Amino acid sequence: MNGKVALITGGTKGIGLGIAEALMKKGAHVAITGRSLESAEEAAADLNTRLGNSSRALGLEADVRDFVSQEKAMRAVMAEFGKIDVVIANAGIGHFGSVESLTTTQWQETIETNLTGAFYTMKATLDALKESKGYYISISSLAGTNFFAGGSAYNASKFGLTGFTQAAMLDLRKYGIKVSTIMPGSVATYFNGNEPDASDAWKIQIEDIGKLVVDLLEMHPRTLPSKIEVRPSMPPAARK
């Protein structure tokens, strides 16, 4: 991974930050995006302080719901590093509730962020990925194949993301581009207002997803794990 360049959406905390840390430890440069320039730059500065040596982190403001914003982020990465080898479409939100209580605004924000945002991220970086014969990885969810009450918007967005990523895999492999989706279960992150603490120790940790991304990138080019489900090995329900 030495000298490789990765663009990670939603990379200021949680899974995105865990992936950024794992890649920098392997010598890759990372560009992390967030809706707030301040939070993105703070996260990048922290990464550079802790891990920067041969690798560097760049913080960028970008909203995945805005294609122009995604194009701007792509150009900033190209200007800074000259290429993009890896794209991690990680940015996501969750609005939960029955179809009776779910508002149209919540529906639109969920679909636009989790699904349309991943499409915009791919479209904005596609030429760069063709040039580098790179790798696009989306962070979907087990909710992308398993529906549940109160999850209509989130299920729809993640079912769609899983389908989009798998279809894109078939479209783009002729260019030498690899495409995979990672589908985690419960992860110890700040998602949906959670504050990770000791009670989250049974969950998947962000460094576990980072390790999984590294494993995908280091796999022999002849092999492509296109859809990976990952879940806690011992959730509370399994202990009863």
UniProtKB/TrEMBL annotation:
Q: Which residues form a coiled coil?
A: none
Top-level taxon of the source organism:
Bacteria
Q: Which intervals hold domain Ketoreductase?
A: 4-188
- Which InterPro entries does the UniProt record give? KR_dom (IPR057326), NAD(P)-bd_dom_sf (IPR036291), Sc_DH/Rdtase_CS (IPR020904), SDR (IPR050259), SDR_fam (IPR002347)
Q: What SUPFAM superfamilies is this protein classified in? A: NAD(P)-binding Rossmann-fold domains
Q: Which GO terms describe its biological process?
A: monocarboxylic acid metabolic process
Give the UniProt family note: Belongs to the short-chain dehydrogenases/reductases (SDR) family.
From the Swiss-Prot or TrEMBL record, give the protein name. Answer: Short-chain dehydrogenase
Report the source organism.
Pukyongia salina
